[in-house]
Amino acid sequence: MKSLFIMGTPGSGKTSVALGLALKFRQEGYRVAYFKPVGSITGARREDEDALLMKQILNMKQPLETIAPYIAGPSYLSGYRNTCETIKIIRMAYEDVAANNDMVIIGGAGFPHIMGCLGLDAPSLALELNALPLFMVRIENDFSLDEAIFINNYMGCKGIPIFGNIFNNVPRPLLAKTEGVYLPILEERGYRVKGIIPSHPEVSSPTVKEYFEVLGGEILTGQEKLDRIVEDIVIGAMTIESALGYLRRAANKAVITGGDRSEVALAALETSTSALILTGGLYPDVKVVARAEEKDVPVLLVHLDTYTTIEKMSEVTRNIRATDQKAVGMTLKNIEKHVDWRSVLMAMQ
Known about the structure:
Layout: E1 3-7, H1 14-27, E2 32-35, E3 38-39, H2 49-57, H3 64-67, E4 70-71, H4 83-98, E5 103-107, H5 122-128, E6 131-138, H6 142-157, E7 164-170, H7 175-188, E8 193-198, H8 201-204, H9 208-215, E9 218-221, E10 232-235, H10 240-249, E11 253-258, H11 262-269, E12 273-279, H12 286-295, E13 299-301, H13 306-313, H14 325-338, H15 341-347
Parallel strand pairs: 1-5, 1-6, 2-5, 3-4, 6-7, 7-8, 10-11, 11-12, 12-13
Antiparallel strand pairs: 9-13
Helix pairs in contact: 1-14, 10-11, 11-12
């Protein structure tokens, strides 16, 4: 039995593709399991979100500690362990997950290089577990393609070439360039492309709740509306005259502004706004709170400055929940419509 190792960088949609493929293969009659050798934690949770999601969706019996045996943080070497021991633990966990299943989909860490000091980087693990590498390409600009070519080159040098690349979460303005420029360049170099998946807010855009979990603070209004998606972020640091144009152009946005900028907050509430994020720990005018309640818009009061707030928000990516049937269903539709899943399935047999 071969397994599939899904690699990529943060925001490349590794989880959504893993989930979509798992659902499709299970629909085809295969017993599918999920394994994430190197997990990560988000916010206050001490569990890997991907492992939890897949355990619930695939009805896996193994504990989370087996599905994701290692959790990597930026100071993981503080608990340094012998390399041979770590590989042995991962191998045992993998065999436990693989038992009585037809295939295993392996989720990579945030970056392919994470835990390379212990030989637990994605290329080394794919080689160790005899898994087919599938690389998620996150397109932001031309440098994104350079990164994809570099990874493909490196994997080839390691003796475990990338089986296929998927351009995932591609922004609508870059779809034509991805199809007409990026894809041909990758294929000209002998690297296969298995799909191009456009960005879908239901899958790729974080929710207000996910931003709140990272930022902390207080929820002043809209406690029941935290599941709203945030497609754009607008910083209301300019004059009200300048702000109005930006506020009108962006839909389903989070507006970041100081708690003392009532005029900007009120203007934002008259446009398509998913949340108001007030920085500096400054409580807003009562008019802002009253209007937000009328509009059912969450208002988050954070005790951070605007710069730190923006920095923290940039690290947030969408975490699909097992209860979010719309997002779960969209992952399957994306695979069926935009990915050559049959060739992936054949390669795993």
